[in-house]
Specification:
About 45% of the residues are buried. Among the domains are: about 170 residues, Immunoglobulin-like (Sandwich), CATH 2.60.40; about 150 residues, Single-stranded right-handed beta-helix, Pectin lyase-like (Pectate Lyase C-like, 3 Solenoid). The chain has four helices and 41 strands. Strands 17, 18, 20, 21, 23, 25, 26, 28, 30, 32, 33, 37, 39 and 41 form a 14-stranded parallel beta sheet that branches. It has a nine-stranded parallel beta sheet with strand order 19-22-24-27-29-31-34-38-40, with no helix packed on it. It has a five-stranded mixed beta sheet with strand order 2-16-14-5-6, with no helix packed on it. The chain is mainly β. The longest helix is centred in the N-terminal third of the chain and has 18 residues. Strand 10 and strand 11 form a beta hairpin.
């Protein structure tokens, strides 16, 4: 009787675990990789990645396939072909979007796209042929290049094409020999219908959910940040919160036409959303001047891109691009968006900010042109770190540029750089560019302060008030500042200083306020 009672309790416990979406540990032969999701697990989120963890670091092959089938009818649901390279590694002579007007299709032995909704194209990018891996992210059919498998230490993470798995299905996975190998030769792929299978949750969260939770370990509504955001309808009228549990989320994030979403991390330094992406790997179309054409913004080079969206709040997390070059950590395009208590890390153009945006209590780290964009952007109590010029400002007369209040500029390395580089650069000219520093502390800034200004500087606002040294707290010697720049004084400019301390003045009348968590 005692044995029966224990067995009953064990069955109840396993039932509770399964209902919570927790898969029991994988049971495998000695030396076989641990699988995620575990073999024969249930309640798996359809946005899951597949993971194999070996006893030693695996080696990625250059050929072979990974296939996922619907167990109900043996239909091929997804295919990854390792003979196709992830994306360009050198600048392409004529970069353009891979416009995909139809869902993914299996053509000539490869997925050019994959059974999902068509999504939204840029509307102007010219279609081209492409010989790299392609996936649709955020329904944007100017497809992205991506890495089908990423190896970190002993774990190989397999990235299926987005939005192919469905709720209430059972799938099985096959992996050809040579896709992954280990030194002892113990792994020779996965074959058949019973080598690795799992079942997805029966149904998604409620459509009107005000809060959905992301957990890379699979113990929540979604495994990926992108999966959670895709779930929220476009132009959502009621605010929804995406709560991200601590973890490393290696994925390109892209969404457009969203509204009223708070993306909230559990811990600023322990929620890290990151990817190696840049202008070479995912170039924007050659036939579109990305920053200049209203209504089109087909840039795909950021780790985390928010496009044509309103009322997006990013808080308490780290966003990082691990690639070098033109590689934004965050690209923010829209109106009335907020970034608070966050780390934004990229390379050139680490942060691109277009449309009214408010940044508070955040750290922005880059290699040069660290802030790029058209504004207006208000920064309060932020720290900026850069090797090269801190910003290239592209605002026109129609709106303000970048305004910094109580911020810290700390140059990386042992050299000096300027706050902003020339508004005339590469054949482009922004004669109304604006960068205003109020009560900021500086270290590693060239005594001239500002880069050269080509052409007429009449409408350029390179202004400072009360800049002090980060080293000793003393007033900065501004005697060698660029002659086109201006030092504001309380005696002459009290009203102007008060205005620039007010976010609503800078942001076109909008007074930013974070929604409660």
């Amino acid at each position: 009787m005692k044995f029966v009672a224990i067995r009953v309790l064990l069955m109840i416990l396993l039932s509770i675990i399964a209902s919570a979406g927790v898969a029991p540990p994988a049971r495998s032969d000695a030396g076989a990789p641990v699988r995620f999701p575990a073999d024969k697990s249930t309640n798996v989120n359809p946005d899951t990645h597949l993971k194999l963890t070996f006893q030693s670091p695996p080696v990625l092959g250059k050929s072979g396939q990974i296939r996922v089938y619907d167990a109900a009818d043996n239909r091929l649901v997804d295919l990854l072909d390792l003979s196709i390279p992830p994306g360009p590694t050198q600048p392409t002579p004529s970069p353009s979007a891979i416009y995909t007007p139809t869902p993914y299709e299996y053509i000539s032995g490869r997925f050019t796209n994959a059974n999902t909704r068509p999504g939204t194209p840029s509307g102007a990018a010219l279609p081209t042929s492409d010989q790299y891996q392609l996936t649709i992210i955020g329904g944007f059919t100017d497809a992205f290049h991506f890495y089908p498998i990423i190896i970190r230490n002993n774990t190989a993470t397999i990235y299926l094409h987005n939005n192919l798995l469905e709720y209430g299905k059972t799938y099985y996975v096959q992996i050809d020999p040579g896709v992954l190998t280990v030194g002892d030769g113990s792994f020779d792929g996965i074959a058949g219908r019973r080598g690795w299978s799992f079942s997805t949750r029966r149904q998604p969260p409620r459509a009107d959910s005000e809060k959905i939770v992301v957990d890379a370990a699979g113990f929540a509504d979604f495994n990926t940040v992108q999966g959670a955001i895709d779930f929220i309808p476009d132009y959502n009228p009621k605010r929804a919160t995406v709560f991200i549990k601590n973890g490393m989320y290696e994925e390109i994030i892209y969404f457009r036409n969203k509204a009223n979403i708070t993306i909230l991390g559990e811990d600023r330094d322990r929620v890290v959303v990151f990817y190696a992406n840049n202008e070479i790997f995912n170039p924007h179309p050659v036939n579109i001047k990305t920053n200049e054409v209203p209504g089109t913004f087909p840039s795909r080079r950021a780790a985390f891109a928010v496009d044509h969206s309103h009322g997006i709040h990013l808080a308490n997390l780290t966003i990082k691009n691990t690639a070098y070059g033109q590689a934004e950590g965050l690209l923010l395009n829209g109106e009335e968006n907020i970034v608070s208590n966050a780390n934004i890390i990229g390379s050139g153009d680490a942060l691109q900010s277009n449309g009214s945006a408010y940044y508070a209590d955040s750290r922005i780290v880059g290699d040069g042109d660290t802030i790029l964009g058209r504004g207006p952007a208000f920064f309060y109590n932020c720290e900026l770190n850069s090797y090269g010029p801190y910003m290239w400002i592209r605002n026109t007369f129609a709106n303000h540029g970048n305004v910094f209040v109580n911020c810290r500029f700390r140059t990386r390395g042992n050299g000096e750089t300027v706050i902003a580089r020339a508004p005339t650069n590469g054949g482009k000219n922004y004669p109304h560019c604006e960068a205003v520093l109020i009560d900021c502390a500086l270290a590693g800034i060239d005594p001239v302060g500002w880069g050269e200004i080509g052409g007429d500087a009449t409408n350029v606002h390179y202004w400072e008030y009360n800049s002090i040294s980060l080293i000793d707290g003393k007033a900065i010697d501004v005697s060698r500042r660029h002659p086109a720049s201006r030092q504001l004084t309380m005696e002459k400019d009290a009203d102007l200083i008060a205005n620039y301390r007010n976010p609503a003045y800078v942001l076109g009348g909008w007074s930013p306020q974070m929604a409660p968590p």
